[in-house]
Design goal:
Number of helices: 13
Strand content: 15-25%
Radius of gyration: 21 Å
Strand order of the largest sheet: 3-2-1-4-5-6-7
Distance between the termini: 17 Å
Largest sheet: 7 strands, parallel
Length: 390
């Protein structure tokens, strides 16, 4: 079976965002299932990309809102309003639908589409209706937009997020209805999208790497470490909760390192908190901590930092929201939603240096379940293809 994997950003050449990591895991699983997969999408501007026969590029693009100037943001917003698009889809309308159609034709004969999230499919809605499709819902985007509308600072931002939520709710409903099968990344997202039937959808357990991570010695240089894209509103909600509700309850000599781009106004009076900005090696950064706080409080989909922490066997304290999409909980993960309980669990885990687990069991379970559920979607797509051929 030859599938065209339509995605906003081709994974493999950028900064290793959660979206790229999840996309790469799904691509690898499709190929392990025996599919020939051609990827259609944009490449990140300024990032060297090796030419590959299995990629049909739509051109270079920079879709990062962080660092974009006011003129650029205004142009994206104007394009979104004029075309009835979401903000994220409007960023992709730098080429015409006809150019996208030509790129689709350049992929050669194929059997169906894998529509990877809503951005590209929403930017060029209608171009992917000529063949059966699988839709991959990385998040319930309209729910995330609704949460952002409730928690955002400022009236204008709340209104814009409310507009996004309205458009996304209709778009996601149409993509789910047209798709022969839908993959979500968390079990609860199936119900939120109205596709909880086993014959229509499945939640995909993910892995963050192609191979099982090796067990190696690590040097611990702080009590706790966090890394993330804190400018993304759902992540910001979790960070604010952690800094405002949990950190003040920690002892004064508890050492916390926080990496990643920080939005304005984020700070902590706790003497042990250090904001370290960009780090060159994210995995080694978290491996330098005695315990990893998994602090999600909002959003949908899966938390890839949770999966990576469990794959590495690192001790952790997690909110229930951080465990979305996780069926197997390692013994060295403590679950706590109350700030006082979360703080006490962090201190206990940090004092127990060497509380690592063997993450290989978690990795093998996740990958085996991922491969099995990918097979369900391919079976559904294959049945449609056979019906059409008959």
């Amino acid at each position: 079976m030859h599938l065209l994997f339509a995605t906003s950003i081709v994974p493999g050449g950028g900064q290793g965002s959660g979206y790229e990591i999840a996309s790469a895991a799904i691509l690898d699983a499709l190929r392990r299932a025996g599919c020939r997969v051609t990827v259609l999408g944009f490449t990140e501007r300024g990032v060297p990309v090796v030419e590959r026969r299995d990629v049909v590029p739509l051109g270079e693009i920079d879709v990062r809102t962080v660092g974009a100037g006011a003129r650029r943001k205004t142009a994206w917003l104007a394009r979104a309003i004029l075309n009835g698009l979401t903000f994220s889809s409007a960023k992709l309308r730098v080429i015409s639908p006809e150019e996208v159609r030509q790129a689709i034709d350049a992929a050669g004969p194929f059997d169906g589409y894998v529509l990877n999230s809503v951005q590209l499919a929403g930017a060029f809605e209608g171009l992917f209706d000529d063949k059966p499709s699988i839709f991959v819902a990385h998040n319930v985007e309209f729910r995330t937009a609704e949460e952002n509308a409730r928690t955002s600072r400022g009236v204008i931002r709340r209104l814009l997020y409310a507009r996004e939520a309205r458009i996304l709710k209709g778009l996601e409903a149409r993509l789910c209805e047209r798709a022969r099968f839908v993959f979500t990344l968390a079990e609860e997202d199936r119900s939120a999208l109205g596709i909880a039937s086993k014959g229509k959808s499945a939640a995909l357990p993910l892995v963050t790497r192609r191979d099982q991570p090796p067990v190696t010695r690590r040097d611990i240089d702080c009590d706790a470490a966090l890394i993330g894209t804190w400018t993304w509103e759902p992540n910001r909600v979790g960070l604010d909760w952690f800094l405002e509700a949990v950190v003040p309850r920690l002892r004064r000599d508890f050492q916390i390192r926080i990496a990643g781009h920080m939005p304005p106004g984020v700070r902590s009076e706790h003497p042990g908190v250090k904001f370290v900005g960009h780090v060159p090696a994210a995995t080694e950064f978290v491996r330098g901590a005695a315990v990893v706080p998994l602090i999600s409080r909002a959003g949908t989909g899966v938390q890839l930092k949770t999966i990576e922490t469990f794959e590495l066997g690192l001790p952790s304290v997690a909110t229930r929201s951080a465990l979305r999409g996780i069926d197997f909980l390692p013994a060295n993960c403590t679950v706590a939603d109350d700030p006082q309980a979360f703080a006490r669990a962090l201190e206990l885990a940090a004092s127990n240096r060497g509380g690592d687990a063997d993450g290989s069991h978690f990795y093998r379970r996740q990958r085996a379940a991922l491969d099995a559920r990918i097979g369900w979607g391919l079976d559904a797509l294959g049945r449609v293809r056979n019906e059409v051929a008959a």
